[in-house]
Amino acid sequence: MLLKNRIPVRGVLRYKHVWPGIRFGWKVVVGTLLGFFGAAFGSVGGVGGGGFYVPMLTLIIGFDQKSSTAISKCTSIKSIFKGVDTWKKETKTKKVIFQNIYWFILFSALLDPSNTGSCVIILKLYWMLPNAWNYKVSVLENVYWKQLGIIASEWLIILGLQIAKNYVTICSAAYWSLDLLQIPVVVGPSSYQAIKLYQGQRVVASQGSETGANWTIYKLVFYCASGIAAGIVAGLLGLGGGLFMGPLFLEMGIPPQVSSATATFIMTFSSSMSVVEYYLLKRFPIPYALYFAGVATVSSILGQHVGEKVIKALGRASLIIFILAFTAFASALSLGGVGLAHLVTKIQHKEYLWFENMCTHKS
């Protein structure tokens, strides 16, 4: 049985990454175009461009699947620029509401599928009122430092635990201890906020109304379970999670514009953590990562501005929902194509098709 991209090192199968040299040609041109439109549509729909970037990097550019995932995470830089741009616009005309309308959701992601190590990321979702106060505030006044500090602290703790796992023996007591330490970091604050919502001490305001939703135990458990499931699937596929969380927010009754912004907020934190981890562990080539991050940033900004003008001209925010649906459909087809291509290749070479033993395999 052939084991492609696997190198045995002291009884452990170490993954061999495939990094093609960066040179101008039809592959780079086609890849740039696909990445450009993927990031543009993803920016408007709030679902990111991972569903386009991972297949493009694998099938066209020629990267191995794990390196494609790492580079795709680097394109999340566009989320930061989109957030800053939106923030500036909101600060000019209205104050973004952070107090009493936030909700914690468990969003677990497999930051490193090749290590099969899972983590749970806690993300705070901020929903902006469409008809908020019409007075100007400064950017600094628009920041709620306490909530931002909590998110930053959790980001650093989870990142530290994930990196530490790579320097201990796989499946050892220390390895599992580091894995389990992530649970109280996120479950505690999440449970606290869920209780506050259930008791009515926290509300999710929308359409200019501050009457909170009827948060039953069933709803709270369902949304948390959906967030966990979305995070696991997104991590396995190397995506940021917006592709799965966007429809969930719409199901919760969140307006399309706010759903897009919230999904982008999620991807900023989940993907940025992955980028830092992958960089420290040298999982992707810097030149390609910088190039496609630049492409994604430019296309994201253009896509956001064009989408905003079209929505204003048509007066239909539902356009965001159609873009989200199209992006999800196209991503499903492209990711499915990658899976089928790899499946056919493995069958032809009579390779192992099931999950590998995590205790004898390392990236």
What is the average per-residue confidence, as pLDDT, rounded to a whole number? 69
Gross morphology = globular
Structural class, from helix and strand content? mainly alpha
For the termini, the CA-CA separation is 20 Å
Helical element count?
Answer: 11
What is the CA-based Rg, rounded? Answer: 21 Å
Tell me the number of strands. 5
Share of residues in strands? 5-15%
Runs in which pLDDT lies below 50 for 5 or more consecutive residues are: 87-135, 206-212
* Percent helix: 55-70%
Strand order of the largest sheet: 1-2-5
- Total number of distinct structural domains: 1
What is the chain-wise order of helices and strands? Answer: EEHHHHEEHHHHHHHE
Report what the structure shows.
The protein is mainly alpha-helical and 363 residues long. The chain has one domain. The protein is built from eleven helices and five strands. β1 and β2 form a beta hairpin. It is globular and about 60 Å long. About 15% of the residues have low confidence.
Write the layout of secondary structure elements.
Blueprint: E1 6-9, E2 12-15, H1 26-45, H2 50-61, H3 65-74, H4 77-93, E3 102-112, E4 117-126, H5 145-165, H6 173-199, H7 217-237, H8 242-251, H9 256-280, H10 286-314, H11 319-348, E5 361-362
Parallel strand pairs: 2-5
Antiparallel strand pairs: 1-2, 3-4
Helix pairs in contact: 1-2, 1-10, 1-11, 2-3, 2-11, 3-9, 4-9, 4-10, 5-6, 5-9, 7-8, 8-9
